[in-house]
């Protein structure tokens, strides 16, 4: 069958169109140019602006920032959501399990985290700077025993194992009218038979809690049983969590739904006996890189084994006023960052060499950088810029590739081929890439990293 000129032109157009569409999704995301999101602008497409409450009570709340908009116009290679948990002093986040794994980072306060690990109940004491993983499907609770300090936790939420009911789905073990226990759905008749108690007793227990998912421990703000829970010694608290989470009175100790749960989960024991994960304090880690203009800390499975099966890494960056984390790209990870202090400028570049986003961010803002995309972060002239991040990566370790600076890949490339690529002489390209004498974190253009004569000589072409 012969194809005429018109048919050939149409076929060529279809091939080109298909190729363009394939290239648009090859980087792991797709963006509709006409509409970026609800109230969003294209120059803010890598900012995660909208948070939503997923748990809320008088004692605290948890809010989540999703990694893509609700209509799915951004398709991310490995999505990650960012959660913010805030709890008043003397409060408890009720025992539950999630369909997503968490990595907790303690921002302010102190916390006790109870976790069922390999069929045993263990507790870990967390302080500021600690990192701690919660696997999907593992029952846990968080206790803020501080008398006067509000607890603030930032967490990554990996939905790769989720049921796709939203940011994540929570399943409360203890509960009543608010929140409801997952057991309550079976109804009084089934629970009565399962627990071998009367239906009236089941109904009383499973309707008592109504304080919400985060409850006060103090007598003046919540049930006495929560206060008793906080006062127990560690091992006694672990043994009695079965009674406390259901709000049982002292006279009701002779039976518990925990008798049923124990058959599944096993008994309680210490962290050491079962090699349960211990927290890692990222503030105590020696920076992987430091110079006069800032530092960067990276944490992965090679130094914190509990991260081995998560595919998640953690990093922490601090830039002095005006300094820059040099333009770079991540060959094996998508980054999600939260501004902890100060303000700065975020620039991200499309694969075609055009600017995708150039915005100023401040404390509390969340932004993400897709895998392979070139980006740089610059601190404001007036204040330092500190941000924490999570990397959602493949099994291989992420090693950022810097595009500018003394350690940039431009120095590794053959200078003759590089000069030909830019269409300039070899001498000029060498002068260009050698002009910057710092690596990774670069000084402000006004910083005295070299005297003026040397700088002029270095960058003259």
From TrEMBL:
Q: Would you tell me the protein name for this molecule?
A: Mitochondrial
Annotated organism of origin: Hibiscus syriacus
Q: Does the keyword Signal apply?
A: yes
Q: What InterPro entries does this protein map onto? A: Cupin_1, RmlC-like_jellyroll, RmlC_Cupin_sf, Seed_Storage-Functional
> Where does the record place the region Disordered?
442-461
The UniProt entry's coiled-coil ranges are: none
* Signal sequence extent: 1-21
Keyword entries, A-Z: Signal
